[in-house]
Design goal:
The chain is of the alpha/beta class. The protein has helices spanning about 15-20, 40-45, 50-55, 60-65, 75-85, 145-155, 175-185, 200-210, 225-230, 245-260, 285-290, 295-300, 320-330, 340-345, 355-365, 380-385, 390-395, 405-420, 425-430, 435-445; strands at about 5, 25-30, 35-40, 90-95, 100-110, 115-125, 130, 140, 165, 190-195, 210, 225, 235-240, 260, 270, 275-280, 305, 335, 370-375. The structure holds adenosine-5'-triphosphate. Adenosine-5'-triphosphate (ATP) binds near residues 142, 171, 175 and 355.
């Protein structure tokens, strides 16, 4: 049984805390004013022993904030719970001993016999599919608002068997996202099978997907298992589904609609058992309008579309990705990128997204002699950023109207703090001011 630490003055706590005993994930009881009244062992193991966290506020322990999350520009599940009276789930970045990590926070209102809200039960589902700090492994990395929004959608879809359609430019991480859906599903222990749809001819498509019987065609010397059979009990990932020619689309539609298929040369219909995830870099709606993609198939596969942000849409992740990719590229231990090179990369559009960033690092790694990838080791297209131009955020700044600096700063901070997903420490660091200065400026906004 887990150890529960309590504040002795709370009368309803013993009963409530018994609840925490049965929860395996980190969980707390929170007072109406955000204070931690009790926590279970899993929570204490991450955030410090019970005594150290009891009586402190959740926003301080989890984020290092001095104000509740909604006042620090984040969505606050406790506030949302209070406003709606309903259970709430929100993806947050929390401090952990390994640095900041994604946590799926579940907030449940607890009421007394009279129906009055007396406290909250908070359960933290640790997110294993993505990391917010560089580290080992090969999963997704990111912490920008655009990345977190996508991650939240993937996590919502994963536990059900719904068909997910991943939409994004090449190199944005669609295969990794498909894997994350698989890993977060009840089929995680089953196989994850990728079908690269581009370049599959009609006959190859059928024999690869459905398999064939011995003697089904010239050269079919034995029975061959198809990818659908290989994906039994797991996930079938159809990458670049927009490339499938129309005749094969009919076969795919039949498979999805009936859940059955026939092997090439086979007579008996076979039952398929897979969860479908599809991906494309194409605008499928446009393909439908142009008669290149079947509308009925489009509706079958687009039940849960998720857009993957391009690297240009998540500039906050650039340095984290550089560090993570360097940790993952074989032989890149000890390699770093100079500040000047990072400044140039920040202004580059990355049409090939994360794959292109990885290629740039692999190339730079071979060119550098001292382990530091500098401007001279970047490909020419990255170096052609006009040095006379101001960095991208300032280039379109209006100067034909004079705005008092104080007003400008307040306007900027208001918008920034509403959008910034990290904690105040990292915001202060990015702004180049101390945390204390930032708090002073933020409190003037209220
Ligand atoms: N969020 C991420 N964190 C770390 N690495 C990533 C991330 N997203 C993508 N990558 C890396 O970038 C490369 C391209 O990713 P992936 O193959 O999943 O992209 P894709 O969108 O499927 O590309 P394509 O459409 O061209 O097939 C891989 O090396 C992958 O490991």
């Amino acid at each position: 049984m887990a150890d529960i630490t309590l504040l002795p003055s709370q009368p309803a706590l013993p009963e409530l805390s018994a609840l925490l005993d049965v929860i395996k994930e980190p969980a707390t009881i929170l007072s109406l004013d955000y204070r931690i009244l009790a926590c279970n062992q899993a929570y204490a193991a991450i955030y410090g022993d019970g005594e150290a966290v009891l009586g402190r506020t959740c926003y301080e322990v989890s984020h290092g904030y001095h104000v509740p999350c909604d006042q620090a520009g984040e969505s606050c599940p406790l506030k949302r719970c209070l406003d709606t009276g309903q259970r709430q789930r929100v993806l947050h970045l929390h401090n952990t001993p390994e640095g900041e990590e994604h946590v799926d926070v579940e907030m449940n209102p607890v009421r007394n016999a009279e129906g009055e809200l007396i406290c909250y039960l908070e359960i933290m589902h640790l997110v294993k599919e993505a990391r917010a700090t560089p580290g080992e492994g090969d999963g997704m990395v990111g912490r920008s608002p655009a990345f977190s929004r996508m991650l939240e959608l993937l996590r919502r879809a994963a536990p059900s068997d719904i068909t997910v359609l991943l939409l994004g430019e090449s190199g944005t991480g669609k295969e990794l996202a498909a894997r994350a859906v698989h890993d977060g599903s009840s089929r995680a222990r089953g196989p994850f099978v990728t079908v690269e749809c581009s370049g599959l001819t009609e006959s190859l498509f059928e024999s690869e997907l459905f398999g064939h019987e011995r003697g089904a065609f010239t050269g079919a010397v034995g029975r061959k298992k198809g990818l659908i059979e290989a994906a039994r009990g797991g996930t079938l990932f159809l990458d670049e589904i927009g490339e499938i020619p129309l005749p094969q689309q009919v076969k795919l539609l039949r498979l999805i609609e009936t859940g059955t298929y026939r092997t090439v040369g086979g007579i008996e219909p076979q039952h398929a058992d897979f969860r479908l995830v599809c991906a494309t870099h194409r605008d499928l709606k446009q393909q439908v309008a142009q008669g290149l993609f079947r509308q009925d198939l489009y509706y079958r596969i687009s039940a849960f579309p998720v857009i993957l942000p391009s690297l240009a849409d998540r500039p906050e992740d650039l340095e984290l990705l550089i560090e993570s990719l360097l940790a993952r590229i074989p032989g890149a231990e000890g390699i770093s990128v100079t500040e000047a090179a990072i400044r140039l990369l920040r202004q580059y559009a990355f049409p090939g997204n994360i794959r292109e960033l990885r290629n740039i690092l692999e190339r730079g790694m071979l060119l550098t002699d001292d382990g530091r990838i500098g401007v001279q080791h970047l490909p020419p297209e990255c170096q052609h950023v006009d040095s006379v131009l101001a960095p991208a955020p300032y280039s379109g700044f209006p100067v034909d109207e004079v705005i008092p600096l104080d007003q400008l700063e307040r306007y900027y901070l208001q918008r920034l703090s509403a959008r910034f997903k990290g904690d105040n420490r990292s915001l202060a660091e990015r702004l180049g001011v101390s945390e204390r200065t930032l708090y002073r400026k933020l409190s003037r906004l209220k």
